[in-house]
Design brief:
Layout: H1 2-10, E1 17-19, H2 23-27, E2 41-47, H3 51-62, E3 70-75, H4 81-89, E4 97-101, H5 107-117, E5 122-125, H6 136-145, E6 154-155, H7 168-177
Parallel strand pairs: 2-3, 2-5, 3-4
Antiparallel strand pairs: 1-5, 1-6
Helix pairs in contact: 1-6
Length: 182
């Protein structure tokens, strides 16, 4: 299990949180996740007016060595771009892609809405600008499938980002509201 855990954390470009619903433990008779031969994974992506980064995120999901059973887009966009993107991919995406209009423009509410619609044993939350390394889903799922005692409730990944200093306006706002650099 340690190797799978290390793999999941060494994948670059992954953010978000993976959570296992409590009812899976009950479904396996309290024997943990390894009581099941293979677990399914639903990906929930809350989004709002970010079709281009979302497209790149979806492309990285399609390149995975292990695909999720579904991808659920919970869209709080003002423009129809994300809905059109989902319609354009309907039936041709690597796995089932579900589009849900957001009940509210709130990241937390959108995640809960996605949880309610998810069919997978494991739910992977991704930000709409995440680009996954090709083996990310397989590595994360291996952690849960090798968890014989059912003790793991969440797994995440590291991001591979480059620091960009704040713009002059942001630097000014930081000084005004946070105080001078220490």
């Amino acid at each position: 299990m340690v190797e799978a855990w290390e793999d999941a954390f060494m994948l670059r470009g992954a953010t978000g949180c993976l959570a296992r619903p409590q009812w899976v433990r009950a479904a396996t008779g309290g024997m943990g996740m390894s009581a099941m031969l293979s677990l399914s994974c639903s990906i929930v992506i809350p989004t709002r007016d970010r079709a281009q980064p979302l497209w790149e995120c979806l492309a990285s999901i399609a390149r995975q060595s292990r695909l999720p059973c579904e991808v659920i887009l919970v869209d709080a966009s003002n423009a129809p771009t994300t809905r059109e993107l989902a319609r354009g991919l309907d039936g041709s995406f690597a796995c089932p892609l579900r589009y849900l209009p957001a009940a509210a423009k709130s990241l937390v509410t959108q995640r809960w809405q996605g949880i309610g619609a998810a069919a997978g044993d494991v739910i992977l939350f991704l930000d709409d600008d995440v680009v996954l390394e090709p083996g990310f889903i397989a590595a994360v799922m291996r952690v849960f499938e090798e968890d014989a005692r059912g003790e793991i409730g969440g797994v995440g990944g590291l991001t591979d980002t480059t620091y960009s200093p704040p713009s002059p306006l942001n630097a000014l706002l930081l000084r005004l509201f946070v105080g001078p650099k220490r």
